[in-house]
């Protein structure tokens, strides 16, 4: 049956994708470098726009997660296809990005059932549907259709997202935190990134406006601040104390920025940490909230890894929950929490769903946020539906509850084992120190590079950790992001390594990495 | 069967959406004003951010399609629910926005079948699936899965979109135009709006950079130019010649802008026109291309209504096709074409799919465009899939071909009839002149308001066409956008009226509108 369909597919593929210039339709998801060779040929010169006539903010913006190392990996992947066996590895392992399903993680069945039914509601009444879909998925699809005006899943929604879905998300937040949540505070977005851009666009007036960001940070923040022409005010996380966030450091950097004439508008906190994986303690969160209140800073809380906790002694607490537990309400602190369907155990990166919960802003400023949202009309409805599902998964008694919890726990327990195995492996290596991944999807080991390696990097006109990552890629096919892409204490070198490769691959990855690292240290031993 | 499911749905709705503050989960898609009352109460004052401390570009940005009149309509809709029979109408008719499915247009079955199967591929092998889905939808779903690396529909894709889907789109463009299209020129986006923002962000460095935009224009352009801090350089379409685009007017406005020290970077052309509905002639398109080439302007071609043509003597020609037919290639002209899944006969606004075809840019500038795209990772995969489908619909011989063409032609022929009926109705009214809607989804009638009405508007501190639209809304429940939201020749007044209400409702809408207009003219007769 499958084979028949596959053969038909091949035939139709050829027919339906046939085009004058079209080469094989099957292709890698990262073939843009090969694209450029073609592009370069076809557009040798253009009189109208050149690098020195585009917006300099665009030139300044950098995003290392898809930067130099990844571009080289894409070339290698093309090369592997063209000349199999030509490299010391037979596949490229993308450990550079938190993209679980690209590394084999399967989607949660219940979520996909509901999405499929909402995409094609006319099958909801058919008998065959009950043979294909769980009863609670069918019921949930009806729930969702009932809150979509006219059941029009193909219509633009309210620019904050469908009210009934925001009610569901607010209900999920309220039960998570134990404090009320207002559906009118929810702005649904195409993943968390556009929400971050919206807040940067609102807050940044010029390079004199500063945003306090952790170092190391997820480069979306540095990229967005650059695109909006603001100043990134760094505060360093303390690697020695497990990437601790010290209030004294926040104060020092805030005063330093102010002494330079920077108006600091906001503090970005990433919890659980990316790339650092630490989970903030409640006491630390209270200090952060007090600091923002005292210094009149908007607290931007990146909480997209809220479902990714791997250690028994830590749990996720939203900053809003902690603020409310301190008796602080809307009048006391301006707080924006970002959540995404791309992370957690769901890992639905391709669906581009997410939201921001906006609290502590005046009605007139909220109207400005709404206005900017309305210019883009609305976020995609499937992403809106999925956001309502991840905040309201199956409950005890629902038909899917047992299979859902098995899928969820299977993913999270495996991620915890992978994190531990990789952490232990890194710590077993000469000159490598790796903090525990308490949460999120990454390890950020520090690598004490030999003086000779640093000199070799300089000679190769490369940053030392980029030099290391490039050598790692060429030797093993493993793609990581150099620490310099996230920021680090000057003179220290790191790499970000996702814990996402499938568990059965971890031992081979560890031994490949180990062998590379040992020979690298041997080659550059002082 | 349906009833059973619906009753179960109600129960689950109450359980799964229950929240401390949650009111009724079923709600209008435009309830944001009622939100704000709540918001205003909960955030009476906030010390951190105020209107005078946010980015002034955000304050300056306006988007009339969801502006003052729509906000008032949302209030009325709440009021209708609370006090039925309290108004001279029993429903709000949203004729302000091109949102077909919100007014009852049904999605195209084949497209939804494929989307559902790609959302839940594990049913592709099941026997029941063949009873529920057409054979070519199943085959197309396999085609698509085969071009997605690892069949991971939940993974981030290449930041330009999945290569195999771009190949399919390029094939569709090539067969539409009869000229080759390179998949590497396609950037898939969440609808056309983010693509427009990306180009504005690339081109605008300061208020000294200008973008030539038609007046009247779709306010996304004025909003995006404001958000990016550039200058909108207006050129007026000639209403007397059916909203003709005169090259002499382009020249005049370009020279005028340059004399003021503005560097004009780009020309925006909307074809078919929004809000004007005109379809450009090939001769006119050749003149436009020559003008951009001569003046070194990037040609931004808004071609999202390419499938919405209602008159036999006009057909859609892409500006790229015309440029290629003139022998002009990548080296001769920088041209960006925008397309969306929200318009056409598909009208899938909620899916947020679209693309831009970027030609005539150097490789290094394209890399900058790619970099900005990569910061947001990728557009939503369902939207990417849908974009590949609308550019490659079922073909003769496919099982769905006949039903697909019946659905498509049914929608387009009905839209043509609605456009003609509304045009005739407007032209039958005192003081109203309405050009034909050759394409797109709107009529833009000119209304010669009596002097007394203009004085009454001024007295009410309102713009005359906004005053008219507000009176229309209060009397009939019909929501339109005042011409002042799109721009118009000073002293002329218009409204934008979508042709999208279902055909059986058109006669009632016409008589309600007619009655209102006659009494309005009577009331304010000079």
Task: Describe the model.
Two copies of one chain form a homodimer. Chain A has 526 residues and is of the alpha/beta class. Chain A folds into two domains: 158 residues, Alpha-Beta Complex (Aspartate Aminotransferase, domain 1); 257 residues, 3-Layer(aba) Sandwich (Aspartate Aminotransferase, domain 2). Helix content of chain A is 45%, strand content 11%. Chain A is built from 19 helices and 14 strands. A seven-stranded mixed sheet of chain A has the order 2-8-7-6-5-3-4, sandwiched between helices. Chain A has a three-stranded antiparallel sheet with strand order 10-14-13. In chain A, helix 12 links the parallel strand 5 and strand 6. In chain A, helix 16 runs parallel beside helix 19 and helix 18 crosses helix 19. The longest helix of chain A is centred in the last third of the chain and has 27 residues. Chains A and B meet through helix 1, helix 2, helix 3, helix 5 and helix 6 of A and helix 1, helix 2, helix 3, helix 5 and helix 6 of B. Chains A, B: GO terms for molecular function: L-alanine:2-oxoglutarate aminotransferase activity; pyridoxal phosphate binding. Chains A, B: Its EC number is 2.6.1.2.
